[in-house]
Design brief:
The chain is of the alpha/beta class. The protein has a domain of about 130 residues: Bacterial extracellular solute-binding protein, family 7 (D-Maltodextrin-Binding Protein, domain 2, 3-Layer(aba) Sandwich). Helices cover about 50% and strands about 15% of the residues. The strands form 3 sheets. The chain has a 5-stranded mixed sheet, sandwiched between helices. The chain has a 4-stranded mixed sheet with strand order 8-5-9-11. A two-stranded parallel sheet has the order 6-7. Helix 2 links the parallel strand 1 and strand 2. Helix 6 runs antiparallel to helix 12. About 45% of the residues are buried.
Length: about 325
């Protein structure tokens, strides 16, 4: 029923937009993040930039905060052509993007950027059109490095996760990592996570500092650990049929706006992450920052995930070697 209502809502928006604007092309885009989040702010910039660069011929309407449904539902809407685009870490249709989410893969913004702008990333994004009917027009950072939190006790070593039921969004590499560290997992949609933590459906979760503040997870979690264990690519999916119907000059303009949006998004994440961490500390939650030795224990415990992603076909050994080489060369 929720999916049906979301589709009905979007269909109504399409009809009302056609009457309200004189633009040649309408682009309805959804995402799950609340107002103030870097994704929300950068998407507002994208909408304004597209309208400016196309002289008003392409009108972008953005619906954030999960107004159009869950990330999976929004992506299905894009595939069906009901909505034209969505941004979010939804990898069901492009599971090979998971190769960039290996635990403890990177340590710096330069390394993350090198991966997301690499030829390998472009190749993986290009695969989406053949398999899903979508085009990925940008790949940026979904929110910064991801941290652990729980209500049970501080997480200072892998053994502290043993026996805990940690929430995931269904991503294999999150599940693999938590299991390698000794936890069990439960899948909860992002929009439902606050209540799941409050009611004990999950003992804990993992998210970037900016997401924790944006969704106020610190109200329902006592202990946070700054492990920087993973970052997520943030693919911007667009319906391929709609995209290919656009005049080339408009596609060029949208690509330019999307690239600037991605760079701005990453700048906002870097700017806001420490401020968000301080907000969590001021809330009264405990934030523990592991020592280098303690982090090494987490890194070593998570190493089996690297073998698993190759065994499960997420990437080849050659691609894994290429990823590691890109990271190693990023700071030279």
């Amino acid at each position: 029923m929720k999916k049906f209502l979301a589709l009905l809502f979007v269909s109504a928006l399409v009809l009302s937009s056609a009457c309200a604007f004189a633009a040649d092309y309408e682009m309805i885009v959804g995402h799950a993040q609340p107002e103030g989040n870097p994704r929300y702010v950068s998407m507002e910039k994208f909408a304004a930039d597209v309208e400016k660069l196309t002289d008003g011929h392409v009108k972008v309407t953005v619906f954030g905060n999960g107004q159009l449904g869950t990330e999976k539902e929004m992506l299905e809407q894009v595939v069906q052509g009901v909505a034209q685009g969505m941004r979010g870490g939804q990898f069901d249709f492009s599971p090979r993007l998971l190769m960039f989410t290996l635990p403890f893969l990177t340590n710096t913004r330069a390394e993350v950027t090198a991966l997301l702008k690499s030829d390998l990333a472009k190749k993986v994004c290009a695969e989406a059109e053949k398999t899903t009917g979508t085009v990925i027009i940008n790949l940026c950072d979904a929110g910064g490095y991801r941290q652990f939190s729980t209500n049970a006790h501080p997480i200072k070593k892998p053994a502290d996760l043993v026996g805990l039921k940690m929430r995931t969004n269904g991503m294999k590499t999150i599940d693999m990592t938590f299991r390698a560290l000794g936890a069990t997992t439960t899948t909860v949609p992002y929009a439902d996570l606050y209540m799941a933590l409050k009611t004990g459906v999950a003992d804990g979760q993992e998210n970037p500092w900016v997401n924790v503040v944006g969704m106020k997870f610190y109200e329902v979690q006592k202990y946070f650990t700054g492990v920087n264990y993973q970052f997520h690519p943030d693919p911007f999916y667009v319906n391929a049929e709609w995209w290919n119907s656009l005049p080339e000059e408009y596609r060029t303009a949208i690509l330019k706006a999307a690239e600037e949006m991605g760079d701005y998004n990453d700048e906002l994440i870097d700017k806001n992450s420490e401020e968000a961490r301080q907000t969590i500390i001021k809330s009264g939650a405990e934030v523990y920052m592991p020592t280098a030795e303690e982090l090494k224990a987490f890194q070593e415990a998570a190493q089996p995930v690297y073998k698993q992603v190759v065994e499960e076909g997420i990437c080849t050994q050659a691609e894994l070697d290429e990823i590691l080489a890109i990271v190693a060369g990023a700071n030279k």
